[in-house]
Amino acid sequence: MRHLSVPRTARQRLLQASITAAFGAAATTLCGPVAWAQQGAGAQTTLPAVTVVGDTEASGTSRVTGYVAKRSATGSKTDTPIIETPQSLSVVTADRIEAMGALNLKDALSYTPGVGIAPYGADSRYDWITVRGFDAYSPGFYLDGLPLRNNGNFGVWKTDNYGAERIELLRGPASVLYGQGNPGGVVNVVSKRPTAEPVRELQVQIGTHQRRQVAGDFSGALNKEGTLLYRLTGVVRDAELPAGGMPDDYYYLAPSLTWKPSSDTTLTLLSQFSRTRAGAYTRTQPAYGSLLPTAIGTRLSPDLYISDPEFNRFHHDQQMIGYQFEHRINPTWTVRQNVRAAHLELDYQQLNPGQFVTRNAANPLDPANFRWLSRSPFSSKESISAFNIDNQAQADLRLGDWQHQVVFGLDYQRTRIDQVSRSGGTAPDLDTAAPVYGVGGIQLAAPYFDGISTLTQTGVYVQDQIKWRDRWVFNIGGRYDDAKGKLRDRLSGMDIAMNDSKFTGRAGVVHLLPNGWAPYASYTQSFLPTNTVDPATGTPFGPETARQYEAGVRYQPEGRKQSYSAAVFDLRRKNYITYDAATFMPHQRGEISVRGLELEATTELLPRMNLTAAYSYTQRAIVTESVNASEIGKQATAVPRNRFSVWADYRFENGIKVGLGARYTGSTRGENEASPARVPSATIYDAMVGYDFQQWSLALNLRNLTDKNALTNCGATVCYYGAPRSVIATATYRF
């Protein structure tokens, strides 16, 4: 979603054979040495007992031991086996997040198919990701099934990996379940919840960039009857960003409470409070000087920080509180209500990097012309309030061989954004040969946006999950949404109102074979109000729409912790708004078509060995219809044809554990094929080594093991480097 009025320049600068056999080679390569080590280990050592909470997966929101989840609520808003979901779905469990040392959401999703992390390079502020070629960060992620809506603004809701029980990714349009949304998919973070089994965990981390972090997770019963449960999760971090000694300080507190007066009724209160006091770190550089050499054959150091640590600031405060209520009226009817209220305050400013400054126009090849870089100041102060409620009534019916699980829903969301943003002004040029920061002379321009945006959506939906003879599953759903947007523009004194309504549908079928195979097919739709005015005509743009055909197959052998999937899809997005690179004016490009294949394997190959592997083949991601004929046939986003990732970890009987991962991203022509040359392919390696003994768990995680300076994307004039190497040592004590 975008603002209701003038397009936001600075924002756009930021945004620039069998399945088993398919993964067999990777599994053999990684497992071979481990199997040999296991056979040659000699005398076996008995490990001390370690407390494990929830060895079996009780529901689609509960803890999963290991990597393989079998249930989810994201794909249907009901607790449903994943194998019965007619759409591609991945679950990243807390155990997997911990083993990989994933510090943020994009790290956690870096080994899932169809996902591009860091399309704008390393970024301390935001978790930019793309799913099936489309931005998944706007209009926002989901937390516990409710939206974390943003409007293309800079104050974006944040989630915490330590507070997550699982992170789930439903690929493709999902408006029938969630209303307005991005066609690439839904990212839903499931919070840790109170448990009857005691959880007592303390964790300490130290690492690169002066990282010092303490975290704790505690849960259990508050009374003898076990009807009142609590959980308290918290994080405190004192750290620096990779450049300029800027702070990266943070705290997070998530208290929750569950009341179960009977087996038919559950009320869970969920809350989160976080504060970030940090600078702003990105690795953006001119295309000529990074991807390509300058005219005199020079390149800038990838570690050169072009902004200013003394000026940059990213202060982010966020509070959320809500509840999830469920009551089983009788064997047929169950009602649910999920509610959350949230507030966010942002104070953000940064110097954005520019281009080389010509110091000697008479001699274009003078080295002085490739030494100084311009910079432009930017700031945004925002106050955001949000309210979400989702009411559901579920009927479980049986008619002979037919079982129906019908969900009737009514949801409402409201987001109010009070924002003052400035872009441009004056700032001193940076001497790349001898950078000096904090010299002053920075003056911000007048606000380009000063207003209050209010966004509301009311949706009515119905879904029927039908099962016939425990072999066929049909999913049919429809939804009607009424979305409204209002803008009070304090610069012009104008009030602008918009209204969009849309019906979306979904249909899918799964055939459950007795040997664990489940082929499926589905058709899904989505819509997204643009809330943007065409500056050329003064009339509102129409809503974006999308539709997807998907066919796939899953394999989950009975009684094993193994899950394999393959999917092919054809996804089309219409009325897609982008911004002109020269004028930053918005226009609706017409249609973008994405077709591809995705493979995923998540399995416990051997006792104490977990493996996850993913492959994405994008046959095309191009503009197929546009008012600008020159755009047709061009790649719409920086989507490589091939992506592959594999991670495996193994825990020896003596408590030593090791893990190794590789992430390959193929080459692209950059954003909108605007890059002056192909962005090269890159392979990034991650590793883990650790030791478990008694109640202790020690781990050393290395992300980007070889410290490779890989470009993740390029535009016409700028390029983005991925994150540098990070080394984190973690000690966890469970008692």
The coarse overall form would be: globular
- What's the number of domains? 1
The largest β sheet comes out as:
22 strands, antiparallel, barrel
Separation of termini? 46 Å
Number of helices: 6
The CATH superfamily is TonB-dependent receptor, beta-barrel domain
Question: What is the residue-mean pLDDT, rounded to a whole number?
Answer: 90
Instruction: Kindly identify the CATH topology.
Output: Maltoporin, Chain A
Cα Rg: 25 Å
Uncertain regions spanning at least 5 consecutive residues: 1-55
Structural class: mainly beta
Helix content estimate: under 10%
How many individual β-strands? 40
Estimate the strand proportion: over 45%
Description:
There is one protein chain. With 735 residues, this protein is mostly beta strands. The protein has a single domain, classed as TonB-dependent receptor, beta-barrel domain (Maltoporin, Chain A). Helix content is 6%, strand content 52%. The chain has six helices and 40 strands. It has a 22-stranded antiparallel beta barrel. Strand 25 and strand 26 (495-511) form a beta hairpin. The protein is globular and about 85 Å long. The two termini are 46 Å apart.
Entry keywords:
mainly beta, Maltoporin, Chain A, disordered N terminus, 40 strands, 22-stranded antiparallel β-barrel, 5-stranded mixed beta sheet, 6% helix, 735 residues
Strand and helix layout:
Layout lengths: L8 H7 L3 H4 L1 H16 L31 E2 L7 E2 L7 E5 H7 L4 H4 L6 E3 L11 E3 L2 E2 L6 E2 L2 E2 L16 E8 L3 H4 L6 E7 L7 E9 L3 E11 L6 E11 L9 E15 L2 E14 L5 E3 L26 E16 L4 E24 L15 E28 L2 E22 L1 E2 L3 E2 L11 E2 L2 E22 L3 E18 L5 E17 L5 E12 L15 E12 L6 E13 L2 E3 L6 E3 L2 E16 L2 E17 L16 E10 L4 E10 L16 E12 L2 E8 L7 E4 L3 E4 L4 E9 L1
Parallel strand pairs: 7-10
Antiparallel strand pairs: 1-2, 3-9, 4-5, 5-6, 7-8, 9-10, 11-12, 11-40, 12-13, 13-14, 14-15, 15-17, 16-39, 17-18, 18-19, 19-20, 19-22, 20-24, 21-23, 24-25, 25-26, 26-27, 27-28, 28-29, 29-32, 30-31, 32-33, 33-34, 34-35, 35-36, 36-37, 37-40, 38-39
